[in-house]
Amino acid sequence: MTHFPQLSLRTKLILSFLIVIVIGGIISLILGWRLIKNTLISQAQVEVNHNLASARIVFNEKLNDIRDIVSLTAARESLHEAITKNDRGLILHRLDRVRTTYGLDILTLTDSQGRVIVRSRNPEVTGDDQSQDEIVRGAPQQGVLAYPEIVPRSELLKESEALADKASIEFIPTPRAALRPETKETSGLMLKTAAPAIDENNELVGVLYGGILLNRNYEIVDRVKETVFKGEKYKGRETGTATILQGDLRISTNVADEQGRRAIGTRLSEEVKKAVLDEGRPWNDRAFVVRDWYITAYEPIKNIEGKIIGILYVGTLEKPYLDTANRVMLTFMVLALLCVVFLLVILYFATTSIVKPLQSMVAATQQIADGDLNHKVEIQSRDEVGELASAFNQMTEKLKAANEELVDWGTTLEKKVEERTKELVEMQARLVQSEKLASLGKLAAGIAHEINNPLGGVLIYSHLLLEETKKDTPAYESLKKIVKETSRCKNIVKGLLEFARPREPEMTPTDINDCVNKALAIFERQALFQNIKIEKDYSDLPRIVADGSQLQQVFANIIVNSAEAMDGSGILMIRTYLDANDDAIRINFTDTGHGIKPEDRPRLFEPFFTTKEVGKGTGLGLAISYSIVQKHQGSIDVQSEIGKGSTFTIILPIKRDASSG
After folding, report:
1. Domain range holding 485?
2. DSSP calls for 534-545
3. 118 touches 108 (CB < 8 A)
4. Which residue in 88, 94, 50 sits closest to 72, CA to CA?
């Protein structure tokens, strides 16, 4: 039979405490990792949603450019004269020059009935009827129309075989894509515009339509990537991507395949296709794109009839955010491990107050067993261990009294000594044994009580020891550092809870000038602001519906950052005014500090990004401020010049959009 070594009381106490710490630490780390990951991913999703809005603007700008080109061309008197004179050569010359100058793929003129008069790209094909095209048919009644449209191969061939071949795309097998019986797409997705040509007599003389084929045209997606993501890379890979899809097929994209080429011909994942194409709703979530997971935003592209014919997409790699979450958790794990080591060291010394008296009683028991009834156990506390020591001393006194009584009996009853010696020896042995058992019973009871009751207090001994330790001892500074670092950890955890789960604003009529003054009042007597001159330029502003306390927090964050940027000496100019349209309030904070580096500006509102020294900032202040302003449907603009200072402008709408909460 295997015998396990007997553990000491100190070891049992330390192991018990360690088990509690480890279990609690593992649970905290798991929950913390999930919280940090979800917070970072959520923030990234919000940013991608904004990027999709920017992509939509670029897409619509291109469509409007085509609209302007076609409408202006259709309105030219010289074109009307050429149509009236039926001078096809002059019409062709003018249309072909416009098409090549502005990079249109097609520019075609029909008569008032929709029959093609001149096709600038392929002049030899004329006379075909375009009146069945919804955009061409609707232009005479509705004016200039501009919409995306699916153009079949037969129509593309009328323009040119090269254009039809450009639209033709072979399907490339794509993981997670929905099954389709086709293996090739021959039609094309085109940004198309039609405008009526009306002469000076206000009569319709024709319809001019033109467009740009999006298949293998990368102008829009590359402009979105450059404008929104600014070429950001992670481990050598582009993080931001944009795509235009025809149905579920990528026809224009900067997403790269395994060979680093544009992933033209790859297809949408089945779950995104079902949501966007089949159900007609936007997709704002993580998605598998060609070969990686991205944080994505998709929205449908609709034709003039409101039918979904394609999708506009932007996305950013998910991996950088997961790696950031892992790095944060690794930092927390290292800090937690250091805290555990410090606490175990403290616990080791703290258990001395429990173990040492017990060791003294064990030694005293051995001396009493050897016959030294004069030995006393020193009582050092008034707790259960002290009570046990007192009971032990009382037991010793009783043993000593009993022993003296026996000696007295021996002197007065010498005649009976020989007869009773054996009986007395046996009685004394039984008495000693009985008292030993009683002592051990009390000892066991005291230990059980000590473990069950004071053990909970061990968790706060680190704080109590700081109060009880003398300031001139070496341990005091160490304990003080432990408390300081623990408090810092607490503040960090408190800041993250606030950018992730921020409370909802309590909207009430609010005076912005009053909020700014309240924020200033917090700091006006602090040493950091003694050499800072604060200049105010307040306009008479209307009250807006907002959460005054949250906005005060935003103003306070920016004021402190401005003061620190000026190293406590300079001018802080605060100006409030209405914007040019009188529909928003602007609050400017202009300092004369050292400014912000251009490479740091895009990251100002990222969680955990800070330019302050280690230990002097968590990097959450501006991130939380940005979240609060967003919840008020506002925005923050930053202008800065190195060596001259920075201006933070907070823009708040006077009237909030009720549909946005």
Report:
1. 461-498
2. EEEEE-----EE
3. yes
4. 94
pLDDT tens-digit profile of 383-397? 666 777 777 777 777
Q: Give me the helix-helix angle, 319-350 and 352-369, nearest 10°.
A: 30
> What is the spatial distance between Cα 40 and Cα 607, in angstroms, rounded to a whole number?
8
- Distance from C-alpha of 497 to C-alpha of 39, rounded to nearest angstrom: 9
Other beta carbons within 10 angstroms of residue 614's beta carbon come to 6
Provide the number of structural domains found in the chain.
Answer: 4
- Rounded to two decimals, the pTM is 0.52
Task: Round to whole Å and give the CA distance between 587 and 609.
Answer: 24
Considering the domain boundaries, does residue 82 fall inside one?
yes
Which of helix, strand or coil describes residue 52?
A: helix
Question: Looking at residue 617, what is its pLDDT?
Answer: 61
Q: Which residues make beta-bridge pairs with 537?
A: 575
What's the CA gap between 559 and 400, in Å, rounded? 78
* CB-CB contact of 462 with 485 (8 Å): no
DSSP per position, 298-314: EEEEE-TTS-EEEEEEE
- Burial label for 499, CB within 10 Å (0-12, 13-18, 19+), is buried
Asked if residue 441 and residue 467 are part of one domain, the reply reads: no
Query: CB–CB of 431/399 below 8 Å?
Result: yes
pLDDT over 90 at 126, yes or no: yes
Phi, psi of 121 (to 5 degrees): -85, -30
- Same domain for 192 and 241, yes or no, is yes
310 Cβ contact list (under 8 Å, min separation 6): 148, 189, 244, 245, 246, 247, 300, 301
- Over residues 559-579, the pLDDT tens digits come to 888 888 888 889 999 999 998
